[in-house]
Amino acid sequence: MSQYHLGEFEEIVLLTVAILNGEAYGVNIIAEIEDRLNRKVSLGAMQTVLKRLEEKDLVKSEFGETTKARGGKRKRLYEITASGREIVQRTKAQRNSLWNAIPKVVFKFS
Amino acid sequence: MMRQAENKPPRIAMNFFRWFCRPEFIEEIEGDLTERFYDYSAKYGVKKAKWIFVKEVLLLFRPSIIGNIYHLANTNSTVMKLQNKRLILILAAVPTLLLIPLIAMQFSTVVDWKIMDFIIMGVLLLGTGVLCELVLRKVKSNRGRIILCGIVLLVFLLVWAELAVGIFGYPFAGS
Lengths: 110, 175
Description:
The complex is a heterodimer of chains A (110) and B (175). Chain A is of the alpha+beta class and 110 residues long. Chain A contains 5 helices and 2 strands, in the order αααββαα. Chain A has helices spanning 8-20, 26-37, 43-55, 82-101, 104-108; strands at 59-66, 74-80. A two-stranded antiparallel sheet of chain A has the order 1-2. In chain A, a hairpin with a 7-residue loop joins β1 (59-66) and β2 (74-80). Chain A starts with 7 loop residues before the first helix and ends with a helix. The model of chain A has no long low-confidence stretch (mean pLDDT 91). In chain B, α2 runs parallel beside α4 (46-60), α6 packs antiparallel against α7 and α7 (115-138) runs antiparallel to α8 (142-165). Chain B has helices spanning 2-6, 11-20, 23-44, 46-60, 63-66, 77-107, 115-138, 142-165. Chain B has 175 residues and is mainly alpha-helical. Chain B is built from 8 helices and no strands. The model of chain B is unreliable at 1-5 (pLDDT under 50). At the A-B interface, α2, α3 and β2 of A face α3 and α4 of B.
């Protein structure tokens, strides 16, 4: 996906990072997605997307605390950036504009 | 105590992950893998958690996580490659050296090697090369390497000379 367009999974991850508001890291982003969307997510897919979003400057990260459950390894906490907020808002506006453009009759017979 | 030792992420899979993962991602992803392992362990049991761990490591084996492949060589594998390259050179040198008398035989009657001569010389050269390689792999100090390789080469030359012209008069001495 280009700098200005998000893939479906990128959008989900970015929105989840925003939902978790500074507490987002690999494991709880996956848990949140699985919980909210009832969708299985692998750690590999998640990390790939997180790194891509970070490269695009849509999220930023910093190391957090370490816990025993993580074998003494630190968490990397992700946070949505201003560019990230802008792109999710634009994506939402595009989606809404598409939804609004659908003639009412389309859903009448489904 | 024994039970606790078993409830750990599979070592081989973890080492494989540490090997292929970009160094700057290791801490974060290893922590995530470990945390998920203990979650799955509590949920499904240790055995299933280990299988899921292996599957997750395999699914992490992708270009974005591996990154630049040069970091893969930044381990002892470089040393291993060099050692193997040297051993291949030694193995290749034996038939190459044996070609010298074979070619010489075609142009001169002075050199007259029988098939047994080639076999004996091949074994001698190979033995010397492999012993030198062993010394280079096991001995770390340069001084030790020079002394031991020197002894191996000296023994080779003496055995060769004994076989060729019989310096010491052993039963296998040549004339």
